[in-house]
Amino acid sequence: MDIQLNHQPIESISTDALAFVAFDKETPSHPALAPLSATGDLPTKLYETATFHNVVGIATKRVIAIGGGKREKFGTYELRRAAGVAVRLLKPKSLANMTFVPDGVADPGAAVQASVEGALVADFDPGRYKTDGRADDKHVGAFHVAAAATAETRAALERGRIIGDSQNFTRDLVNEPGNYMTPTILAERARAMAAEVGLECEILDRARCEELKMGSFLSVSLGSEEPPKFIHLRYNPETAVTDRVLGLVGKGVTFDTGGISIKPADSMDLMKYDMAGGAAMLGAMRAIALLKPAVRIQCFVPATENMPDGKAQKPGDVRIAMSGKSIEIINTDAEGRLILADALHYARLQGCTHLIDAATLTGAISVALGKVNVGVFTNDEAYQERFLKCAKTAGEKMWPMPMDDDYREQIKGMVADLLNTGGRYGGAITAAWFLKEFVADTPWIHLDIAGCAWIDDNKAFIAKGSSGIAVRSLIELAMGFEKS
Ligand code: BES
Ligand code: MN
Ligand code: ZN
To answer: Does the annotation mark 337 as catalytic?
Structure first.
C-alpha cells in the first residue's frame, strides 16, 4: 500500500473514496459534509460506517462516514482503529486509492502516525496458503492522509509506515504454521531481516548453547527433532549518547505441545503462536534499526519446539540453568519460563543494563485480565511506570500486576532451588516470579501476552489471527530510551 499526505481541500480531492470520522451529536465541521447529518444517516456509534455517493460539493464519488462515538472519548487509540475500519471496508473493492481525514486528534503528527499505523495493520490478512488465488489479493492501492505536508507530518507518516510494517512483520511470523516456522526457519527469518535493515545477527546453535551451559533452555528442546536456535541481534549505533543498553527478550517456542505433560487436542493448533513474544521483539528490532534511536539495544530469542518423545524431559527431572540455579521440572508444559531463564541471564552477561521480555507465558493471565490487557510485571516501579506511558502512547492496553514476595513461596523447590510451576493460584504471577529469579538486580519488565497475542475473530479494523501486540509499545520505549 502506497502512503502519502494529501493537502488539497477535501472537497476537491478525487481519490476513489473519502473517509471521515463522524462524532455523535455533531454536525461534520467541513461545510461540504455538514448536509449529510440532515438525513440522520450518519453513524453515531464507534466504528459504525455509512457510505454516501455523489455528495454535492465533494469531488470524490464515494464518501465513507466512520462513527467516532463521543468526541470526549475519542483519541489516537480510536483514530488508529477508525483508519483501519476505513481500509478494511474498502479493501474488498480493490480501490486504486482512498483518502482518510484524521479528525478528532489535535496533534497533527500523532494523528497522521496513528492513521498510517491503523491503515497498514488493517491492510494485512492471513491466508498465505490458500490455493484459490483469491486470498489477500485485494488491497487499497494508495492510502492518502488528508493533512498539510509539514516537516512534522512527513516524519510522522514515515514513522507510522515503519511501525505499521514492523507490526505486520511480526504478525506474519506468528501466523506461520509450526511446520513452516521451526526454530531454524525463525532464525533464518531473523537473519534475513537483520541483513536487510542493518543489524548484527548471531545465531547460537545447540553446541554453542551447551558450551554456555544453557541447561534450562536446552531441556525444552530434548524431545524435538528440530534443533534449537538462540537468536541474538545487536543494534549498536555510533550515535549512542548513553551507557544504557536495552535488552529485548522474547519467548520463541515455535510449537508448544506441552511435552510429556501434553496438552489436550482442543485448540492445540493455536500453540503455533507460542513464539509471539520472540516475533514481537524481532518486529521491534526491525523498526529500531530503521528509526535509529541514539541508544544501544540488543535482542534475544531462544527458539525451540516443545515436543513429547523418548528423549524428552520428564516431570520431576532436575535441570541446572546457565545462572547455576537448579530447577525441578514439575510440568513440562511450563516451558516458556525455562527458556527465558537462560535468555535473561545471557542478556545480562552481554551487557544489558535494562531488560524487558515478552512471552505467551500463561493461560492464567487470560483468566486474570481477559484478552484485553497485557499483564505487566516488574522489579522496578519507575521503569514500569515509564513503560506503561509508552504503551498508552502506542495504543496498546497493558495492566500492572502485583509481585509480592509472598508469591515466591509457591515456587520453592523440594530437591532443587526452584519449581517450574507454582500451582493453580496466581499462575501468571508465580511464572513472573520464576523469571525474576534470573534477572538479579537488573531493572526488568515482563509482559505476559498470552491473552492478547491472538485475535479469535475478524474485527472491523484487524483480521483474526496474530495481533502483533507489544511491538508498538516496545518501539516507543526504545525511541525514548536515550533519555534517562
Ligand atoms: N504457551 C503456554 C501458555 C498459553 C496458553 C499461551 C494459552 C497462549 C494460550 C505455556 O507454555 C503453558 O503451557 N503454560 C501453562 C503453565 C502451567 C503448566 C503452569 C498454562 O498456562 O497452563
Ligand atoms: Mn507450555
Ligand atoms: Zn508455551
So the answer is: yes
Q: Which amino acid is at 392?
A: K
What pLDDT digit, counting tens, does each position of 443-468 carry? 999 999 999 999 999 999 999 999 99
> Residue 392: its pLDDT value, please?
98
Are 56 and 35 within 8 A, CB to CB? yes
pLDDT, one tens digit per residue, over 288-323 is 999 999 999 999 999 999 999 999 999 999 999 999
- The whole-angstrom separation of Cα 338 and Cα 335 is 5
Residues 68 and 216 reside in one and the same domain? no
Residues, Cβ < 5 Å to ion ligand 2: 256, 333, 335
Within this chain, do residues 250 and 370 fall inside the same structural domain, yes or no? yes
Instruction: Read off the CATH number of the domain in which 143 is found.
Output: 3.40.220.10
Q: Which domain holds residue 433?
A: 168-479
Q: Which of 244, 263, 397, 408 is catalytic?
A: 263
pTM of the model: 0.98
In 3D space, the residue among 427, 421, 363 whose CA is nearest the CA of residue 401 turns out to be: 427
Same-domain status, 391 and 249? yes
Amino acid in position 442: T
CB atoms within 10 A of CB 259: 27
The C-alpha atoms of residue 319 and residue 324 are separated, in whole angstroms, by: 10
Residues 123-179 pLDDT 10s: 999 988 998 866 678 899 999 999 999 999 999 999 999 999 999 999 999 999 999
- Residue 133, pLDDT score: 67
Task: Kindly state if the Cβ of 331 falls inside 6 Å of ligand 1.
Answer: yes
Distance 336 CA to ligand 2 centre (A): 6
Rounded to the nearest angstrom, the distance between the alpha carbon of 445 and the centre of ligand 2 is 21
Q: What Rg do the C-alpha atoms of the chain give, in angstroms? A: 23
- Please name the amino acid found at residue 321: A
Is residue 214 within 8 Å of 342, Cβ to Cβ?
A: yes
Q: What's the confidence (pLDDT) of residue 44?
A: 85
Q: Is 272 a catalytic residue?
A: no
Which ligand 1 atom is nearest residue 421's CA? 19
> Which CA distances in Å does 468 have to 125, 264, 290, 305, 352?
13, 26, 18, 21, 24
Instruction: Tell me how far apart the alpha carbons of residues 71 and 126 are, in angstroms, rounded to a whole number.
Output: 33
Rounded to the nearest angstrom, the distance between the alpha carbon of 162 and the centre of ligand 3 is 29
What integer pLDDT is reported at residue 137 of this predicted model? 81
